[in-house]
Design a protein that fits this description.
single chain; alpha/beta; Spore Coat Polysaccharide Biosynthesis Protein SpsA, Chain A; 10-stranded mixed sheet; 10 strands
């Protein structure tokens, strides 16, 4: 296997990291510290994009692992902030890291190894550890290659935005930037994964190399209205989702749960029925019904699932 360390006559690829942030200085510094401690010996450049908040110049660093701060110059929100950072970078690869997540020291080394191991992948991902209020659960994909079909059948939540490592030219010219039209910048990473996978399989390192913070620190922890609208957007813009009964049942079940969480009982029941018609064993639809009936709260269901590293 070819690795970066086996290429003494060639410079190691440079990596740019985009971190969108909004008023979370302590978590941001943890993310930055994890990037500074990467074992990867190539050049790493970080761009912190402040989305609607004052610039924190105190995190800026010069040198081989420079950290630059800038404001979001595109549409407000996560997608615009990511694109601001992407277009400011000229590195060989571009990685994402959310400000409430952090990387283990071997993440970039293992992903660059995978990128250089043949096949010329345009995107490399890795598995994750989910941290929910101190409880940690590993989420593996059980594969070293993720196809478009995988992502139609399942969102594959272990392919989190904080694991994505793109070949820069592919991202800019073939896959395309993060879509800023996705409602609330939710599911924009699933949209990006689908657009990448329809071109060629995604290379995956099935090791938990990123720690993902779930719970109230997430900007989208309980934003049910945009969860629902973004899922409807996905169904409209990715018609292939309708081709897999289990996959579309999952999306319908998620919409049902989101509607139930907002107190929209009739809509929740209608979506749950659609979900169960597509796939009768879809547990998300079943879980939506007692929430719609106000027998149990959506918060209680989510807290239970998060303890096991799962979500709706």
């Amino acid at each position: 296997m070819t690795t970066p360390l086996d290429l003494p006559d060639q410079p190691l690829p440079s990596v740019g990291v985009v971190i969108p942030t909004r008023n979370r200085p302590v978590l941001l510094r943890r993310a930055l510290d994890s990037i500074a401690k990467q074992s990867y010996t190539g050049r790493v450049q970080v761009i912190v994009v402040h989305d609607g908040t004052p610039l924190d110049h105190s995190v800026a660093v010069s040198g081989a692992r420079a950290v630059t701060v800038m404001e979001n110059s595109r549409s407000p929100g996560l997608a615009g902030a990511r694109n601001t950072g992407i277009t400011a970078l000229s590195t060989d690869y571009i990685a994402f890291c959310d400000d409430d997540d952090f990387w283990l020291p071997e993440k970039l080394t293992r992903q660059i190894q995978r990128a250089l191991d043949g096949g010329e992948p345009e995107l490399v991902t890795c598995a994750i550890t989910v941290d929910y209020e101190g409880r940690r659960r590993v989420r593996l994909a059980r594969t070293n290659e993720v196809t478009h079909h995988h992502l139609i059948r399942s969102r594959m939540s272990m392919l989190h935005s904080s694991t994505l490592l793109f070949e820069r030219n592919a991202l800019l010219t073939r896959i395309g930037l993060v879509n800023e039209e996705v409602p609330g910048s939710q599911n924009e990473d699933w949209d990006l994964l689908l657009r990448a996978a329809v071109r060629r399989p995604i290379a995956h390192v099935d090791e938990p190399l990123a720690v993902i913070q779930w719970g109230r620190t997430s900007m989208f922890a309980r934003a049910w209205d945009t969860k629902v609208s973004s899922l409807n957007w996905m169904l409209e813009h990715h018609p292939a989702l309708l081709s897999d009964s289990r996959g579309v049942s999952r999306v319908y079940g998620q919409i049902a749960f989101g509607e139930a969480a907002q107190g929209n009982q009739k809509s929740a029941i209608a979506w749950a029925r659609r979900s169960l018609r597509a796939y009768p064993l879809q547990w998300r639809a079943v879980a939506a019904l007692p929430v719609a009936a106000r027998v149990i709260s959506a918060e209680s269901v989510m807290n239970f699932l998060h303890r096991f590293g799962r979500g709706v």
